[in-house]
Structures are given as C-alpha cells and as structure tokens.
Amino acid sequence: MRDEVAVVCSRSDPASLNIAEQLMRLVSWEDHGGYSSFGPFRLVVHSEGQTALKGLDSTLAGLGLSPGMVVFPCRHESKARLPWFGGHFTGNLKEGQRELSAAAPSGLRSFLWKIKRLAPAGYGISAEATHHGPTDMQTPSFFAEIGSSEQQWRDPVAGEFVARAILGLDPADLPVFIGFGGGHYVQRQTELIYQAEISFGHLFSRYQLGSLDAWLVEEAMRKSGAEYAYVDLKSLRSEEKKLVRTILEDLAIPSMSGKEIRARFPAKEQIEPQCNEQ
C-alpha cells in the first residue's frame, strides 16, 4: 500500500479514542506535531465530533498530508445494543439534503475482511447504508466502527481488533458496484463482499429510495468509482424495483444479480458473513 492513509480519530468519541489508543500501543509512531506517522499511516487526533467535521481535506493539506484514503474510527449506536463491527460511507439524504462524500470501496472491503478474521464469536459484522457526515470529503473515505454500546466502545480488546484491521488494510483494485435495497445493515451486499471479488461503493437501503433520482445515482457512481449496480430485489416492493430499474436503464448502468456477480467474479476465498439486523 503506497498511498498515505489518514486515520482520523476523535477524543470526544469513546470508541474512536479507544481505537486511537490501541493504534498508538501496537506500533511505534513518529510525532510530527499535528499528526503521527507509521509507514503509510498518518494518525490525526482531534476534539470535534466525527460526523460534524467540515473541510477536513483542507485541514489535512494544511498539515502537509495528501492521503489517498481517510479512515474514521467511530462508535456505532443501536437500540439493540448488540456487539458489532462494521463500516460505511457518508452522505446526507435527509430533510431535502442530498450530499455524498467520496467513498473508498476497496478500503471498506479490506476492513470488513480483516475484522472478520479478528472478531470473536458473538459480534455481528456488516456494511451499512450510506449515512451521516462528513458529507464534503473529496478524498475517498469510510467509517470503521465499534458497536453498539458503551461496553464495547470502551473495551480495549474491541479497540485493538479495529486498530489491527486498520493497520492491516490491503486495498485491492476490484470491480466496484453501488447497491440498492435491503435494510440499514445491507445484509445481501455484505454477503457479496465476502463471497465475490468485488467491492461496494455507496449503498442505499430501501428506506432511502425516496431520495433516489438519476442525479443522485450518477453522483454515487462517480464518487464511488463504480462501474456496476446491484439491486437487492427480494427486499423491494414492485414500485421500488421499477424506480431503480428505470433509473439504471436510463443511465445505461449495467446491473447484475447476486448469482451473476458470484459467477462472473468468483471469490478466491470465502468467509461466512455474520450479519445481523439490529
């Protein structure tokens, strides 16, 4: 991995701070004032909320950094409070706003594979649909999260697993899809990440399809570097299927079923996913 990877942690987030502490413990970092370095990694620790950051590309450039990818370690919350690891890309599709940050498909895929090998029994693992900020990232990025309660956020063992997965990132140049359908934890898309030689960029759950139009799909394709689309048809109602299919056809974006993806891009290795809808 030749490009710089900026790992941006927040002191205000207990899981993010936990992961930062484990990163500092696991390897020897060189202090550069505003950041620390180890190999291609650049560790930046700040005091703001992770999702509220704005202008981070400029902030990193001001430190003399030009990363090819940014990772945001963060906490994950859910009502079920189940032990969980996962990640997602960022974008705001609420209250009339439609903003998407640049996604790092190969980064998220690599993280999910690494964390799957490290995670103990009892932890769910999945990608999530695109959500929250920062929404202005021009550098490809993804969130790497510990869920789903204070117990896991502050657990140094959970923090070490995420830290090791980040330090082990090995992004590969694979075909990129954007995805539509499923719940927030996009179970079938997560399964395909583990069962085929592909990666996913922006992912839209069925609950976000009300924001969907040709502009948003083109934006998601561009900011994901995607070539293809996948639609979880089993999760959608007929009118939702028609909406997605019409947009993809109008934009001439090729779409494949899960079966077609597995046949065309067979996995070199398969790991059974541990998805759970919380």
Describe this structure in words.
With 278 residues, this protein is an alpha/beta fold. It has 2 domains: 5-167, Aminopeptidase (3-Layer(aba) Sandwich); 176-264, Rossmann fold, CATH 3.40.50. 32% of the residues lie in helices and 23% in strands. The protein has 9 helices and 14 strands. Strands 2-3-4-1-5-10-6-9 form an 8-stranded mixed beta sheet. Strands 12-11-13-14 form a 4-stranded parallel beta sheet, sandwiched between helices. A two-stranded antiparallel ribbon has the order 7-8. β7 (91-92) and β8 (99-100) form a beta hairpin. It is globular, with a radius of gyration of 18 Å. It starts with a strand and ends in a 14-residue tail after the last helix. The mean pLDDT is 95.
- Output the CATH topology of the largest domain: Aminopeptidase
The topology string of helices and strands comes to: EHEEEHEEEEHEEHHEHEHEHEH
Helices, by number, come to: 9
At CATH level 2, the architecture of the largest domain is 3-Layer(aba) Sandwich
CATH homologous superfamily placement of the largest domain: AF0625-like
Q: Give the strand content.
A: 15-25%
Question: How far is the first residue's CA from the last residue's CA?
Answer: 34 Å
Structural class: alpha/beta
Query: Major beta sheet, specifics?
Result: 8 strands, mixed
Taking all Cα atoms into account, the compactness measure Rg is 18 Å
**Rounded average pLDDT:** 95
CATH class of the largest domain: Alpha Beta
